[in-house]
């Protein structure tokens, strides 16, 4: 790896920079000379520093739908400093005012304060990798530093197709924009998944990014990690003494991870044809949820502590052989059916999809984890489109009791205990256990103790992008994916892609609006288990 | 979020507390099967007048779903003896979940009012924080109920003598609703010094003018004095309908945050010698009681900066 860019000291420290700067105190509790004395005690230290957010792909869908509304929300919550500017970069020939008009449109409820902030936004038109684009960008950034007091802090957000990640990073490097300025300013690069198409291309992308940016300057976004309830997996596991001791092979029979989508591919047929469920969901979202579920307790809840443990957990996941892929992985595609009360077309009839497409819209698999905690506990994963409902959950299925002292008819409705972490929607936790049915007979039946986050904490939770944008500006990389995490996740997924490519792996079919093909049911049934119905 | 509606009510005069507790359990059982029962605290409002009871009831009904709590509204009455009580079970909905919370009203007459700790105790939820709120007065330092409180909510907006509160803050977590309402203003003032080139001016402020109403104005002045090391002579306070804060770094720079005339906006500006200036418009912060109480219930810990601001305000005679 070649690293020419200087490291991001705040991020490299492994702790969010905000802990020691914006909050205004040093590690020993005294106030540092260079801090703002009036900011002490405000916003729990989570205000962004002065910063220019440079969005490549500024005229695109992601910018209008997610990034700009997230910026507006941060502004509404007063988490942005007055010296904050968005600089849009895209090929479309827009003036500053055109861009400001688009941005204003993206947040119709923005009000006068939002319009006032947008008045400072700038736009640079040009080809992404072209030196002249970067020269113009550099000039504009110098101007906003002088006019708006952004202090040389730059965050480059690549809201573009992945194909331009490399040329943009190279061009930023060639223009010197990858280097933090004097006085401790920062230059950070934010990119979104997909991080490559397989292990090899992910490595190549990493090498390309590292030509201009040090790892501590790179923030890889998987928006799943920005979700409150994904972060709550950490709180549940490591803030409570009751769960962690039973979170292992001594008590668990198996684990099921479900990431189900009710929608089909919608207008993304063209993109989806090149991705499939394994690349689109399993390599990133599922692996992130899985690593948080499997990881050991970190010594500290900070960027290094958490990410080190996540990588260790992924390393323990057994890499499949070609033979195992044939028996332990099911790939399938939806056909026409009924979803949410409406007749819907099959995947091959979707816009942008080849009529003989073999792209999988569903994957189920059985994973094994080779470490002390998880040995012998199979992990079942399933994800798919056009399933009956949108749901993401992790279910820990406990072993049966060693001996049931009840007569068979008294406990026929009793199932093993299950602890379910519902990540979306209806975020919460439920515990299934047996209870006596009131009456003369001693019948035992399942009951569900249900906890809903929505009923306990009704404060408006920040949107995932809002949270992640703020973290990146603050310099807290905890919820971003480190290079070795990406590569480790690909190491698990890559053999499956290879096996599929090498063999003519059967593609099962399932009617839209069902929980997947019968082959997926058989994957569990052969070991006497079955999928939960979320 | 749906408005909370009363699902079940009960009222009785001259009651034993045991029967109120039993009634509460009975009324809860009647709605328990349809609604989740998630609680995060017991919230006790200590009131003296019917107006205070009415106001507290309205606010707590609005907040009941935001901070699912058992709500106790206690009114003390000097004359007479005995306790009257009411129990109301409210139902609402959050994210599609039916949700209930309950409210107990206790009218405590005579000597019993000196023993609120023993009156409140049977109603507190086990293992959860007990937050005691004084909507329109400051608690006497010797009030026994405070021993049961995890946090105490007060409002110094109209308060004159805060010496007792300063003493109390050394022993309990005190949250001042007035301070909560000032938080957005403090954030806006602090944000003026965020740009690296303006940061050094924060330590070179030589004079501060604070205009506004009564207590909040003086609390702001105490905050500026304590954070910026200003003396009483460097502070100028003025009565005004709308808040306005001006900070001067000699003749080098002037920083100002104030409500824009005729608009629901705040204008924040920095003007430097040599003609350089920056200005921005910000939304006018919410200053409703519901908002400030909600904020207070979210930030229940001790606040060192508030304690220093209050002490500095008193030291500067700003409270008189």
Give the helix/strand layout.
The complex is a heterodimer of chains A (534) and B (320).
Chain A: H1 9-12, E1 51-56, H2 61-76, E2 84-90, H3 96-106, H4 111-118, E3 122-125, H5 131-148, E4 154-158, H6 165-174, E5 187-192, H7 199-212, E6 218-221, H8 228-238, E7 252-260, H9 269-294, H10 303-316, H11 322-328, E8 329-335, E9 337-339, E10 342-344, E11 362-367, E12 379-384, E13 391-398, E14 418-424, E15 428-436, E16 444-452, H12 453-456, H13 464-474, H14 483-502, E17 508-511, H15 518-525
Chain B: E1 5-12, H1 17-31, E2 41-47, H2 50-63, E3 69-77, E4 82-94, E5 97-109, H3 116-120, E6 130-133, E7 151-154, H4 163-169, E8 173-176, H5 177-191, E9 207-212, H6 214-228, E10 235-239, E11 244-249, E12 253-259, E13 265-272, E14 277-283, H7 289-298, H8 304-315
Parallel strand pairs in B: 2-3, 2-6, 3-5, 6-7, 7-8, 9-10
Antiparallel strand pairs in B: 1-4, 4-5, 9-11, 11-12, 12-13, 13-14
Helix pairs in contact in B: 2-7, 5-6, 5-7, 6-8
Summarize the structure.
Chain A has 15 helices and 17 strands.
